[in-house]
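Figure 2 data, in text form.
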Amino acid sequence: MLQAIRSKTASIVVKALAGLLIISFAAWGIEDILITRASELSVASVGSHDIDPVEFDYELSRETQRLRQSFGSALSEEQLVGLGIGNAVLQRMINDAALAEKAESLGLLVSDDQVTRAIQSDETFQGFDGKFSRTRFNEVMRANGFPEQVYIERVRADIALRQLVGAVDHSPAAPRKMTEMLRSFRFEKRTAETLLISASDQADPGTPTDEQINKVYDDQPQRFTAPEYRKITYVHLDPKLLMDDVAATPEELQAAYDANAQSFIKPEQRTIQQIVLTDEAKATEAAQMLLQGQDFMKVATDFAEMEPAAVNLGSVTREGLLPDLAAAAFEVDSGSIAGPVKSPLGWHILKVTEIDKGFTKSLDEVRDQLAEIVKREHAIDGLYDLSTRFEDQIGGGATLEEAGASVGSPAVTIEAVDRDGKAPGGAAAAGLPDLASLLPVAFAAEQGIESELTEAGDKGFFMVRVDNVIAPALKPLADVREEVIAAWKEQQRIKSAEAQAKELAQLVDGGTDFKTLAGIVPASIETVGPITRGDRDKASSSVIAKVFELQPNKAGIARIGDDYAVVHLLDVNAPSDGSDTMSVTEMDGLLDQDVGRDLSAQMIEAMRSELGVEINQRVYNAVIKPGRFDPNQPL
């Protein structure tokens, strides 16, 4: 084929045509002919409506900003994409477009007066006087990047959509019988009594046969499979490595003492109550009443007419009170009364209810602790220089072992460790440092490649290399035989507990008094209820399910972990008209709303199917991609 083309292009005519083609490309620009820009495409189409990628980007930005205001600015663009925010926004825009097209086809008209009333009644645009503010409206438009006419048309469209959806949303009414049935289902209360049959209380089932052992081993391979182990080598740049070479000077010790004074000096604190009166004579009278043994709070609230919250000052230091008040309050014993004392606020009567003497530790008493603080600060400062030299060694081609040795931190190898820090024998892996992030980094790393130098808080830095990966493997039966036997016995005890529970339930159904069962098993009878189906915190879910399956005075069983409960239903109570139960009318309103929402959703889905929805995945991906969307980018 290529040879044929070459032979044809050898003619003068073909060469002339090729020349004209090249000139046309040069004149018009080959890029403009071959490239389609994002802004020239739609991200989705619904019937005859196209959703512009710029508009989609705008709505996505607004939703992103709203979520960050609600959940914090720490949400990254990658996290938002992972949460599916882009798809949620696009689907909402598709629904709006479908409704808009249907409203247009039905000829739903919205007058200018309706639009004006809607905008002027929006609290967002109200000024300090509670009325519509043109200035506030303009500010909001600028802040949100809305041209005024665009916003007005959007309000007009929203009103039309509400009219269309409202016709469906508010018209349905749930059948009264359905409301009564659902109310009865939701708020019916039942009471039962239960007796727990524990698997651990069952008799030893004996020794299993080889056939039984093999069956358990074959049926539960995950239980007897060793986890993934990794052989790792790490270097830990620990601040402690540098602490021994640091000597704290007296000035540094004093500075550390001052900086951590709150840990070494606690001033005396007193818990104080007060009565404040503006009249000296009344203050003196109140003090006499207290001396006669009357209750301080009663005098404060009845005689001084103070609120209880104003009486209690709480725990205060000497500096926390006015000087005159502090002098009086800090000179009396606990339980004593001081005053009346004059202050700019009036006449105070003070009662000391509790004294915390506080403490003061001298510098000499905490010298060793301060020396550790100073040494650690020096070590952390030196650690950054150490880490730089270490990384330079790695960057220069040194192995992890060589780089560690060059900075005085020898590499450590652990032959096998799982994600939980255990060695194959089940014990803690020897040589594993107290670094919470070491194993997660090691189990995310590729074999044979050093990790990044990872910061470990005040414990310095580390770098790890995975030397070998030992894949999960089923342990030989000989090595786990005792575990398999224990698993078999566990199964048999569970089966025994189930059989005993079924037997007791049959006895109850046959007329045996439930209370006599407590003499058969080592457990006490417990009452459950009255409960509704939603009272998940009052019993296990399996017990609640069984309670609402049973007929009155009948029994059944419910599994709880490895154990079984015998459940005996005592009584059933229909929903009352009390304050803790929703009325039929309230339930009716909720169901009407639910039915309306369901019908609205079905209507929108039917519109989408009728109109047809197409999504341009290339444009969609370009818009949601982290970073600023460029509408002129080629697609």
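Caption note: Residues 1-34 have pLDDT under 50 and may be disordered.
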